[in-house]
Amino acid sequence: MRRRITRRVLRAALRRVLLAALRAHDAVLGIGSELERRRARVRLKERAQRWAMRALIVTGALVILGVLPWLVWRGPYVIDGEYIDRNELAKGSAALVTGLRTAVVAFTAALGAGIALLYTARTYRLTRRGQITDRFTKALERLGSPEIYVRIGGILALEQIVQDAPEQAATDAARVLGHFIRDRAPKVLDAVKPLTDEPAADVQAALAALTRTESRTHVDSREKLDFHGLHLDGADLTHADLTHVDLHGASLAGADLTGAMLTDANLSEATLTDANLSRATLTDANLSQAALAGARLAGATLTGTGLAGATLTGADLSGATLTRTILVGATLTGALLSGATLTDVNLSRATLTEASLFMATLTNARLDQATFKEADLRDADLSCSRGLTLEQVTSARTDEDTKLPATFYVSTGASVPIPRSPDGKRPPVSLVARARRNPDA
Q1: Membrane spanning segments where (predicted)?
Q2: pLDDT value for 435
Q3: Residue 38 and residue 20: Cα distance in Å, rounded?
């Protein structure tokens, strides 16, 4: 009860002192600006908070010093007085008193050790914060150097801060690296900076530092990389973590994105001509209207990827996994899809002229109005595809191992059953077409 009263009195006194100081300070700064008055108030509040903390610490120490002797001397009688004879301390009673007093002293020592540990931890945090601030300042100074090797040193220093510092400091360092890349890398439509076949050394170093998995795990997950419209041809982004990155309209022609993580990335209208995306993860990525001519996507994962209207002429998608991928109106002329798995893929109005689907599996794929002229469908499994017409298949190259749907659709909308041969296989499509044209053959 006394402690509560003491705390209330101290708090009330501190409030009065603070209000009086604020009024006096406002009177002195009566002719000053509003901004100056606000700054003064903030400084006074911070100072008052520091003094309040010190007052509480001193009060707590005084209370402990005052209560501890009383607990040591009178505590045993308060706790177990009914078992202790105050006039004649028997041997057992004396041991009980000594044990209780020892427990009080041990508890106080443990409490003091805990307070000291908290103070040490706070001191360590403040010291570390100061060190990070100093490192951050020096790294920023290096980034502004005209010498490229000094700038690269600053980038490496910021990378260490991203990986070592707490989340907020790591996020701030990552933002600086992102701003550096956007400032130094030329824009796709930039008429001033020359467009090169590969990024400058400092830009490449910043890209590597910012997209490493070790760096991304320390940055706030809400912080997204923004590289839209940048010219990053030939960039080395091997195994880079580009989750949620914005590369809308960017140019990454010839870039190496082997094994890169591009989950939920925005690559719409981006240029990825001859880029290497082998074994890359493009789950829920947006590549609509993107240019991927000659790109290598062997073994890539394209789950829920949007490729509507994209150009994949001559692209290599052999062994790739395409699940719920949108390829409506996409151009895959001469594309290599050998051994690829296409599940729930939408290829409506897609152009697959001279594309290779040798041994590819198309499960529940939509093929409405798709073009298969001279496409290689040998040993391909189209038995569960939808919207496939006889005209589409007859324009492609097939063999006796091509697995076709039970029925086809002709241009009039009627279905034509495909008979099975005695050994259980469907006859080649060319024979079926001839049989339809010449029933007596």
Answers
A1: 51-73, 93-119
A2: 42
A3: 16
